[in-house]
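G.,

No rush on this.
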Amino acid sequence: MNIDLSGKTALITGATGQLGRVMARTLANCGADIVIHYHSNEEKAAQLKQEIEALGRSAFAVQADITDFASVLRMKDAIANRVDIVVANAVVQYQWTTVLEQPLEDYASQFDSCVLQSVHLAKAFVPGMIANKYGRMIGINTECAMQNFPGQSAYVAGKRGMDGIYRVLAKEVGEHRITVNQVAPGWTISDRDRENRTERNESYEKGVPLRRRGTDQEIANAVAFLASDLASFITGAYVPVNGGNVMPTI
């Protein structure tokens, strides 16, 4: 049983980031053509485009501000291919602190890049999926949305708002054979950790049932599964990929 995305085009927002690059390569290895969204790192986008093309897949790099609906619509217009899979991975980075100390603009940035990004992408790409009677919307959430630890408030607020959008959207578009799901990574090992030799963190790992941090490839594998027809009857799901560190209840 193989994950086969041949004939599909996948858009990944924030594709030049640590996790985005691995997801782009993974979906390409499964046969998908890739739309590489970037906000400011044009050089990394061009490099990733070359990598995807070396895998034998088509790749297209496009700049957009995912917090601006007009910019997202321009991105849609720039994409020549039909988009079958949308992975909402981009998020604004900021410094975490307590609710009392967190600047108000950080709450706005998380709302814009988590909630409004999800709405913008749905409005731009779901109508085409409805017309084709097929689509995959996949949001990258976080285990933090269930942890609610000190310092996480702006990030948690944005991601929990995103969760609401995705659950409602799943119910609204399911009749069109469109699935809407979320992958919730834990504290993930990326190339930055490998370069800095920071893969291990015992204080975090001891609380994880599998006693380790997950890898970027393991997150990308879950995204590829949800993007495939193997997951055709899964929608509205929040899927933690974190070794059991958080467990949704029934």
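When you get to it, here's the other one too:
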Amino acid sequence: MQYQLIALDVDGTLLNDNYELTERTVSTLRRVHEAGSRIVLCTGRAPESSVPIMEQMGFEGVLIAHNGAATVETPGSRLLHEFSFPIGHIAGLVQYCRAEHVHFDLNTSWKMYVEHVGEAEAAMYEKYMAVPERVDDVLALTVPIVKFTMFGSQEAMDRVERQLASFDLPSSLQAIRSGAHFIDVMLKSVSKGRALSNLSGMWGIEPSSILAMGNYYNDIDMLRFAGLGIAMGNSPEEVKLAADEVALSNNEEGVAEALMRHVCPELAGQ
């Protein structure tokens, strides 16, 4: 079966744990592209830190960023879809993070804002190729935002996740664990699956012609939407159960192996 659209999560899926894109994976992706499939990154990252991954693959085009809150076209800065909300809706959450010393950043479709960056945060932003803009008070910003992200150790995020269960978030917002060290707050209407549905509809591609791969909870609805949803071997059990099959892990080039089997079987064994 020819899959017309290949939707790929980035961290924990396309990249290994050293944040590397292997030569074998790049070669396979290029062959898949040459075979006629569109490749779309579907990531929690911002466009700023996603475009370099596309450039490493030798591609340009559309990517789904911020867990589906923004869909953009590269090169340039054309915004295809955006789901934003006023900063005032998370004023209470900002105050909580300040009081509990939880690091946070605010994201528009294109920019990231922080109030401070410590050593651990600086190392994290460097790994993700993100360059946040520092401001004294994020609540003084007047731009609409698409994502509010909290960052910390896994233990700290486990604690925040428990406390958010009783936090009085506006009914229009949701908090989702997008990684062991991250919790994202976005509109409830936002998801990778919805963004992928919007994009595939715009291109006239049926879900049955979509192959999607991911490794974390924020990938589940994307995996369920696609005709073939593949969870990585390093995924939590809940993610594996939501998928149609489980691939090798991100450290075993699971993306390349799965695409060889399902899109370019003639590459198997190479």
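The chain has a mean pLDDT of 94. The CA atoms of residues 1 and 262 lie 8 Å apart.

Enjoy the weekend,
O.
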